[in-house]
Amino acid sequence: MVIGYQEVQRRDVTGSVSSVGAQQIKDVPVNSAAEALTGRLAGVQLTSAEGTPGNANVQVRVRGGGSITQDNSPLFVVDGIQIENALSVIAPQDIASVDVLKDASATAIYGARGANGVVIITTKKGIEGRTVISYNGFAGVRRISNTLGVLKPDDYLNYQFERAQQAGATGTGGLNSFKALFGSSNFNSDTLQRARNAPFVDWQDETFGRDAFQQTHNVSLAGGVKGTTYSLSLTRNLEEGIQRGSDYDRKLINFRFDTKATDRLRFGLNVRFNDQTTNGPGTSTTGSNTTSRLRNAVQYQPLSVPNFSGRVLDPNTFDDDFFQNSSLVNPILTIDNEYRRDKRRTFNIGGNVSFEIMKNLTFRTTAGFDVTNGDLGTFNGRYSPLLRQPAGNYQNLPTASISTGIQNTLNNSNVLDYSFKKGVHSVGLLVGEEIYQQRNTSQYIQTNFLPLDITAERALANINQGVLPTGQTSQPVLPTTDIPQDYRLLSGFGRATYSYDDKYLFTGTFRADGSSKYKPGNRWGYFPGASVAWRISREEFFKSLTMVNDLKLRLSYGKAGNNRIADFLGDQLFSAGSAPYALNHAIVLGSAATRLGNNNLKWETTTSRNVGVDLALLDNRVQFTADAYYNTTSDLLINRTIPAFLGYTTQTQNIGSTSNRGLELQLTGAIVRNENFTWTATANAAFNRGRIESLGTGLDERPASLGLGWHRPHPRLRGAGRPAGGPDVRLRDRLHQRPPGLLHRRRL
């Protein structure tokens, strides 16, 4: 397995590592590598925000998250190259193995990027001596498995009548409003009785009820001759979303070439291209009450009845009266009037050279370049609820926007690897340096006041078609370009390993990282790690137990940093044109500071402690691994409230700490294993308890807002003793206990 800049035998690992091989994921009928790995690695949690086709933005957490305000995503390394969000640009069929480094003794070799765990992916390569052409494909249908309970027409109408009675005849949402919407204010009238017996309109089924077809096709060509192997893989993924109007299309090319030029020189090349398009706005674009598709699907009135004028509203027509009283919109009409197309192209090229300088001493260099282009186009038509929000100055006219971004990444590492073995002693030394550079640029343009009948295609093809209404002198949102985010990391690292008689094992690592995200004086972070292991099964007193093939006890301790923070976090930033002042009897638009800078910001640091045991029984047919850990993260980057007389309300400071403690269990067994048939079963379980230990001196709670997009935001308190990264448990419990009818409680 790969544990950071080198490969080792699994039995020699002294840290906490979870692994999965190609055989376990290649036949899983999913389009996403993240989905294929879900539930297969103890202590690794993969979740999707809203089930968008393709699952391009899957959240990965290794042993919880230590940071409250910053990113807790792990580091991804593919064939020795660091790649952001690698699971979205690799096909499951191209993966040979996935190794996840979980404790700091293992991740400390990655220093500032290792606090959240490290996911190391190795892609497949060819086989010497033969050429293999293979096809792997599948097709299937997705269907929603569970929906929220909502009121039927009878209960819904009775509940709305009761609420209208409480408001009175002329009060807001009172009986007059009820009569205008449902045709009568007499509870026992024939009109309302017919409405109670009206067919139930299940908007969840209309919105999310389709059978979503998906298919994957993978063709690979692999082979080689003596000393040279190659592998070429072509993948096409097509997937419909269960939500109306959503789909996903991805095309992948993966090429790997390895050759042994001489007995001492090896060379490798990896080329990867990913082209994917995701259509559809998802369940919630902004998470607001008005624009949430999920909220409209569960709260919009579940029946169609004549109003006071006797007219039954066409479901394809916008009901302005109902919207004004409830801020709800027909969910089908909403989806058909909103367009979102997210196109991403990623090109990655990496190369490696290995040269044996002398016996047992090898020099390896690895370099990679990655470029990602993003193009997001959105359109909101005449019936989109976004246009009816007070903010935004849309004036009920269509709007369109185009957002583009380019991310360039350069990564290079150089290592010297020395190994020595004499008798019962084995020694390994590794030293190296690494540079990592990333540059992000983005542009954004938005046009309001488009013609009412314009289509999304026409609007995005020529976005400059807005006509300013009377009294409007300019577009509310002007085109913007962000300050280029140019981030650089320079590192030096080393690892030392020692084994005595394959019985007592030691691994020590150290890394120093200098990051451009911090100011001089705080740019360098130092991250040590150490682990020991005792192979009890090698002891004389244990050799009589022949059924036990391997029993190893592990203990580790280490520190790692988190560089996944925002750029310019400690800088004093200014907003142009936000501070008007008078000069020579004229108003001049000046610039004003938006926040108070802090040149003393430093690394968030995670300290990990781990104890584990590895057990193999019955000729290695049964393998069991258990790990218990306790991680603490200190110097959290938090916006702390400061006295308002300073001219600002908050400042980012290093205060507070969190902890994560847990237990991980994994059991693998070869139920049947012979020449013709193999049946292997794997089970794992993990328990993690995250806790905020401190938010700094004098600060016990940090207010926030819990808004899920389909109900009004609820207050959330983050404070000492509460879970890190989540709402107060008591608030969460109360939310889950709300009766189903509450989903329809809106003002009428």
UniProtKB/TrEMBL annotation:
Main location as per UniProt: membrane
UniProt similarity note: Belongs to the TonB-dependent receptor family.
Keywords, sorted A to Z: Cell outer membrane, Membrane, TonB box, Transmembrane, Transmembrane beta strand, Transport
Gene3D superfamilies in the cross-refs: TonB-dependent receptor, beta-barrel domain (2.40.170.20), TonB-dependent receptor, plug domain (2.170.130.10)
Residues annotated as domain TonB-dependent receptor-like beta-barrel: 291-716
Keyword Repeat attributed: no
Membrane topology: Multi-pass membrane protein
Organism: Hymenobacter humi
Positions of the TonB-dependent receptor plug domain: 10-118
Biased composition (Basic residues): 737-748
Protein name: SusC/RagA family TonB-linked outer membrane protein
UniProt-annotated stretches for the region Disordered: 710-748
Pfam families in the record: Plug, TonB_dep_Rec_b-barrel
Subcellular location: Cell outer membrane
InterPro entries assigned to the protein according to its UniProt record, in alphabetical order: Beta-barrel_TonB, Beta-barrel_TonB_sf, Plug_dom, Plug_dom_sf, TonB-dep_OMP_SusC/RagA, TonB-dep_OMP_SusC/RagA_CS, TonB-dep_rcpt-like
